[in-house]
Amino acid sequence: MHPKRGYTGEPPPTRFNMARYCLQAAARATPDKVALVVVSDADAPVEVAEHWSYAQLDEAVRCTAAGLRRLGLEPGARLMIRMGNTSDYVLLFFGAIAAGYVPLPSSAQLTEAEARFLLSDSGARVLAMADDLRIQPPPGVQTLGSTEIAVLRAGDPAMDYADTAAVDPAFLIYTSGTTGRPKGVLHAQRSAWGRRPMYQGWYGIRSDDVILHAGAFNWTYTLGVGLTDPWANGATTVLYNGPRDVKVWPALLERHRATLFAAVPGLYRQILKYNDLREYDLSCLRHGLTAGEALSPALLEQWRTTTAKELYEALGMSECSTYISSTPGEPIKPGSPGKAQPGRCVAALPIEGGEEPLPPGEIGLLAVHRDDPGLMLGYWNRPEEEEWVYRGEWFIGGDLVHFDADGYMHYHGRNDDVMNAMGYRVSPLEVEQCLSQHPAVAEVAVTEVSVREGLSVIAAFVVPRDPDEPDGMDAAPLLAHAHAHLAAYKCPREIIFIDSLPRTVNGKVRRRDLAQWHR
Questions:
Q1: In this predicted model, what pLDDT tens digit does every residue of 460-483 receive, in sequence order?
Q2: Which residues are within 8 A (CB) of 455 and not within 5 positions of it... i.e. 6 or more apart?
Q3: What's the DSSP call for residue 279?
Q4: Does residue 319 lie in a domain region?
């Protein structure tokens, strides 16, 4: 018999509240220390930015929790957040968790139809939204605008953090489903504790760190690396919510003396392309963090040569955040995201079935042990989606990998058709369903295509209904249709017209064969 496998890190306490874990200790030990800086104008002096101390943040979160309690919601009620990267978003997310409710952070890029689907699917009782993102909610859903949120926070004394169990629901995040519909990933309060292996297994985080994150709040990468982990370690986090100009990031790093920077590889590539980093003082930056998509060896080398700093990569997923990473003090193997973080139990399993990990060098499905405290509670009301992701004691995410003799993981693509668009998982079915509704489209298949080393985009391969019609071979109406019905990151960058789609003998589209038509 093989020895018992599983997570070997310290288990979470039985009673555990994620918001309390992130804020209470630092609010007591260093109440006046800056916990959060929200920057709207990258060119403005540091003093102009919005600053929150740990004491202020702790009290505001607990006041928000008290205000939400006043709405009369049942424990575990869902609250959908439809806002930009503002402090209100932060307070609502952690305030809901502090009160024992379940926030649903959503992207500000979602169209009204996409937002309505999340509202309906989650059964959210409350919709908090920015004034410029207002939609008409279905009957029975309470709405909170900026005025109501301010009143909510100021109306009651701060309550104590809810006495929740580690396995109680904490938040719900939506990701692409294999059926083409986004699916809710329900995380437990313990998920914050499950991030502890990352502290030294990826960041090398310290309490004196200033972390600048380039992502949006609907993403677990931002919620975790940008908020949860810095606060659990008494550090300072800087978030930017101004215009998305790639040239602001070096200026923000310099002005706020950031020690850690987190972004997707695509943004690092753009920063290097459109900025002369020699013009900026990046002496405070210890290193960069990257996740969401593969870091190419060429980009890693270019960053090292230009900045004399390292980039530490991590691999994870919405269901378990990151669990494989490179880390300070360990050699980086270009092309590999690193090793399993300390305490994690990770393996490559045979593709066709079985629970015994494969030996080094053999390609299999990447799996994480299901007793990992960072692993989701399950998919929201989607038991059919769970059938293929659990195999005995393992959770399987769909990545094909092998581990080398030194324990480094090497990626070999997906075992399914889920795409990666700037770190967001996107189902081709969702994009195909949208485009198929356009009258000029007879058939459509969507996949990723490589445009150059380390850069892939979403492309739609379209069989036109009538090629002789004026719009029959025109990509512009199809792109406009996609942007009208899908979040920007889900939209294809290219439309490629073809005579027929490649299919198997059983009629299934062979998406992986489509790249041969790419111009």
A1: 999 888 877 766 678 999 999 999
A2: 266, 269
A3: G
A4: yes
